[in-house]
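Input/output pair, single chain:
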Amino acid sequence: MSQTDNTDEIAQERLLDLAEEFYDQFLDGEIPHMDIPTRSKSNIVFDEESQVWVYGDRKSTRSANSVRGARKLLKAVYTVEFLEQQLEEDRSSTLRELYYLSESWDEAEAKFNDQSESDKLVEDLEIVSGVKREDFHMRPEESGAKVMGPLRIREQTNRGDREIHCQEDVGQGGYQIPNNPDTIEFLDHDVDFVLCVETGGMRDRLVENGFDDEYNALVVHLGGQPARATRRLTKRLHDELDLPVTVFTDGDPWSYRIFGSVSYGSIKSAHLSEYLATPQAEFIGIQPSDIVEYDLPTDSLSDSDVNALESELEDPRFQDDYWTEQIELQLDIGKKAEQQALASRGLDFVTDTYLPERLDEMGVI
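Output:
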């Protein structure tokens, strides 16, 4: 039995366990219910030991003791049945398709009102079952994130296993990360470090300039706020191949949060932080000090930018001397800058000067 088959079997068992739990509640004369961690910001805590966001101890109960609660449990039961059948047939579907599929269910009360409702239910099932949605064969509509660098992998696909070199066997666009990166086996590599890049334009600049080749870098395009698949692959690259991970973003508070989601996890996926987050990841720019040192083209901070920066000064993810100094400097100068602002010093400046100097300072190269 392959690892994928074993994972599918475990996912099916967990789903059936949930259905059996509801059945036993009926037999025992109990009102059917499902307990899950309270999914609110007030129940998210930063675990100092693991350095990631996790759920606290507060619980919420989805119970059939009200019409509204009964509807939620009914939708959960129908979804459990659908997911178990999907695994049995070795099929997959998108989160969007699940929302539309409910229109065909024979019980009108089981239909979802909108996709946000079905998305949240899938997250609930992840939490109570301890199984990731990827192992339910559920995927988002698209991720689009790509990888370029000296890494050879084997990917399990529905059409058989494929060996791929993430430079030699792909075009300039790179290797697209699958929805479930756990289907990837790392075979061989000459990678010295991972460079996660926020924007597509900067990723293309690095590849066009041959940065991945010259520095044995694995360039991972984050595509803005990174998808779960991207964060999972990044964590595996660090944990299994012992590769340093760096995160290269714009110089604004929202980009710092992108770094935070890679390194410490996000509130939305707190139940999966230890599966997705890479606390050892290091931030490589654009720093507020770079704006001053290189006199980069800038935009003024908006009121929402200022509020976000002030919030980050209280955020446990940014509680160290480096971040305090940089954020206070940014509030002082009142400016923000994009990665592409480095082009004001020439198209090769980022690959010939900026990144090599920063990586050398950090001891990565």
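The two ends are 41 Å apart (CA to CA). The longest helix spans residues 3-27.
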